[in-house]
Specification:
The structure holds 2 protein chains of 2 kinds.
Chain A lengths: L2 H4 L3 E4 L5 E5 L13 H5 L3 E5 L14 H4 L2 H14 L5 E6 L1 H12 L4 E7 L17 H13 L9 H4 L6 H6 L9 H12 L4 H4 L6 E8 L5 H10 L4 E8 L3 H4 L1 H14 L1
Parallel strand pairs in A: 2-3, 2-4, 4-5, 5-6, 6-7
Antiparallel strand pairs in A: 1-3
Helix pairs in contact in A: 4-5, 6-9
Chain B lengths: L8 H7 L3 E5 L5 E4 L1 H7 L3 H4 L11 H18 L1 E10 L5 E12 L5 E10 L1 H28 L11 E7 L9 E7 L5 E8 L3 H21 L3 H13 L8 E9 L4 E7 L5 E3 L5 E3 L16 E6 L5 E5 L7 E2 L4 E2 L1 H12 L4 H15 L7 E7 L1
Antiparallel strand pairs in B: 1-2, 1-5, 3-4, 4-5, 6-17, 7-8, 8-9, 9-10, 10-13, 11-12, 11-14, 14-17, 15-16
Helix pairs in contact in B: 5-6, 6-7
Classes of the chains: A alpha/beta, B alpha+beta.
Chain lengths: 266, 373
């Protein structure tokens, strides 16, 4: 198996530096890190990739049964670290990738030197006293929203978006391409993301962990950040003065600083 | 200037036939027009400086906004044609199409986000109709497909039987078919074939072919007689030319001899216990083209550990090397040799893996039926 091709792996930064793996969440691809990569690449070896089904990953590797649960993505992360033989890695998981990182670190603890959980949520649905912020009806509404934007994905565009090996520049010219996913795949990823419950996995984390949250985040509100911080043994919490769910875009300097300070000592 | 062209800019903004709003980079609304306020039922001071744009959306649309729209906006400066739902003060939902663009300062830092909002009730209702029609067509195709393939194969004492069907497209009913069924005299009938063409017309021929083969076998199970009957039916079809390639066989469970008749179909493979794989040359002419088509037959005895593999040409026609070459019969023989000795189940799993490995190179339906002792 060629993980470089499957996950469209890109490696940049200091060849001998500490390895920082940046893992994107639901919605976009590795381009979401583009504003923090320059700062991190100055000090670390930065590894970026696209989850299967996103960006320029190998769409032929996508299987509904494999990618209907976060374990499929976590297995890919472990395979990637094995293939590149990366050790003592600082894994930065954004959004759902935070939980993918938690699962991968439990599978292959020796490869992980630290975890950065960026705007994480272990469970998006409300459950008893736990407030994830969403109801089942809300998630169904999201799935409907993905359906409504279905027509933005046309069959004629799909082969171009999914990567034309002979003319890679074609993909880059398309607007929206880095947040555009085959709706069938997006639906499966959305279900895996928003209907998973990984609260019990947090207590099993042994790697040094930094939880990064934003002051205003409609997807992962502060009480969820506090819950993750309280549940991961010995974790640290940083609250960025930022709005939205993607601080690597809305507050790239502060986000890069938080990652770099953690990666320097973890 | 004509007074008709001299529209007042403030009034144009406020009363435009679409919603306008401007927000800070964090989404806080700083300006909004009367049209949008009218749609939502809010007073201006309930919104300006008080609400962020995502707060006007349904929760589902808000998640979509935070995970797709906001990142795109930051990365490419504008994003258009988004289907979102806004919620009015009384709780009613309004489907809208949203386009957003970022206004930046001299250093390229975002200052404002300008958003236009179009009423999309009619368009979304129409799109929902399209989606429903598509889902209905997919359901129909799936149902039809199920009637063309046996849901499960019967078990034959002393034999391992396995089959696999690869659908090239979920929207289309495929033209490949196979079956295995008991005959009245204790023997077993089996067939596998490929109807020329695609879509509904091909499915109609597949259905006709399948049921003709089953009923012809009841009348006279001799493989050559079955194909002759099928040929008569297909060539008399008044709806225009209908033809297929097919292998029909009869298996005797006492001595494990399979008598095969061929109608222009790719040769089956015999994967022998001793490590040799070979094509069984059955031959014959295409079924349904000529009124007096000639078919030929061959017999194979399955020894212990032998596997007979019938397949359609989706495998051999699969494109390899980024489309430059076809997989071909030589490669298939080499592949089959590598599997020997095997069982029907293992061989079918191996073929399934081979087909998946073709990725986009496999653009035709493919059926596989295997028997082993």
């Amino acid at each position: 198996m060629d993980v470089f091709h499957r996950n469209h792996v890109t490696v940049t930064g200091q060849p001998d530096g500490r390895v920082v793996v940046l893992s994107h969440g639901f919605g976009c691809d590795q381009n979401i890190w583009r504003l923090v990569v320059p700062a991190l690449a100055a000090r670390f070896k930065v590894v970026l990739f696209d989850h299967v089904g996103a960006g320029r990953s190998d769409m032929t590797a996508w299987r509904e049964e494999r990618y209907s649960s976060l374990n499929g993505y976590a297995d890919d992360v472990v395979a990637l670290l094995d293939e590149l033989d990366l050790r003592d890695v600082v894994f930065v998981g954004h959004s759902v990738s935070a939980m993918i990182g938690v699962l991968a670190a439990a599978d292959a603890p020796s490869r992980f030197g630290g975890l950065v959980l960026l705007t994480p949520s272990p469970c998006y649905l409300d459950d008893g006293d736990y407030r994830g912020g969403f109801s089942r009806a809300d998630i169904d509404e999201l799935l409907e929203s993905l359906e409504s934007n279905y027509l933005g994905w046309s069959a004629t565009m799909a082969p171009v978006i999914m990567g034309n090996p002979d003319r890679p520049e074609l993909g880059q010219e398309l607007t929206n391409s880095f947040c555009r996913t085959d709706p069938r795949i997006a639906r499966v990823f959305a279900r895996a993301t928003f209907l998973s419950d990984n609260r019990a996995d947090l207590a099993l984390v042994t790697a040094p962990t930094l939880v990064v949250e934003c002051t205003q985040d409609a997807i992962a509100p502060r009480e969820v950040g506090a819950y993750v911080h309280a549940s991961v043994p010995g974790s640290a919490l940083v609250t960025l003065d930022a709005t939205g769910h993607c601080p690597q875009l809305s507050a790239p300097e502060a986000t890069a600083r938080a990652i770099a300070e953690f990666a320097a000592v973890a | 200037m004509s007074p008709l062209l001299d529209d007042d800019l403030v009034e144009l903004y406020e009363q435009a036939p679409c919603g306008y709003l401007s927000t800070l980079p964090d989404g806080t609304i700083v300006k909004v027009n009367a049209t949008l306020l009218g749609w939502l039922g809010y007073d201006r001071d309930e919104v300006v400086g008080r609400k962020r744009f995502p707060e006007l959306l349904t929760v589902g649309s808000r998640i979509y906004h935070e995970t797709h729209v906001a990142p795109l906006l930051r990365m490419q400066g504008e994003v258009g044609g988004l289907a979102l739902d806004v919620v009015a003060v009384d709780g009613t939902r309004l489907p809208v199409l949203v386009t957003s663009a970022v206004k930046t300062d001299a250093d390229g830092e975002p200052l404002l986000i300008r958003i236009t909002v179009f009423d999309a009730r009619d368009r979304r209702a129409y799109e929902r109709e399209l989606l429903r029609a598509r889902q209905e067509a997919e359901r129909l195709a799936t149902t039809l497909q199920r009637t063309l393939l046996p849901p499960t194969l019967p078990s034959v004492p002393g034999l391992d039987i396995a089959a696999y069907y690869h659908h090239a497209s979920p929207d289309e009913v495929g033209g490949d078919f196979y079956d295995l069924f008991p005959l009245a005299d204790g023997r077993w009938g089996l067939f596998l074939g490929d109807v020329c063409g695609k879509g509904a017309p091909a499915a109609a021929v597949t259905s006709l072919t399948r049921y003709t083969l089953r009923s012809a076998a009841v009348y006279d199970p001799d493989p050559l007689a079955v194909l002759t009957n099928l040929n008569r039916v297909l060539s008399h079809n008044s709806d225009g030319p209908r033809f297929c390639t097919v292998i029909f066989g009869v298996l005797d469970p006492d001595d494990f001899v399979v008598t095969l008749a061929g109608g222009g179909h790719t040769s089956p493979l015999l994967l022998r216990d001793d490590g040799v794989a070979e094509y069984v040359d059955v031959g014959g002419q295409l079924v349904g083209v000529l009124p007096d088509a000639r078919f030929s037959s061959a017999s194979v005895r399955l020894g212990p550990g032998d596997t007979l593999l019938l397949y359609t040409d989706g495998i051999t026609e699969a494109r390899t090397d980024a489309g430059r070459n076809r997989f071909g019969e030589d490669a298939l023989l080499t592949f089959a040799t590598g599997l020997t000795p095997t069982t029907a189940s293992d061989a079918v799993v191996a073929v399934e893996t081979l087909l998946k490995g073709f990725g986009d190179g496999l653009d035709d339906d493919t059926a596989v039926l295997a028997l082993s002792r």
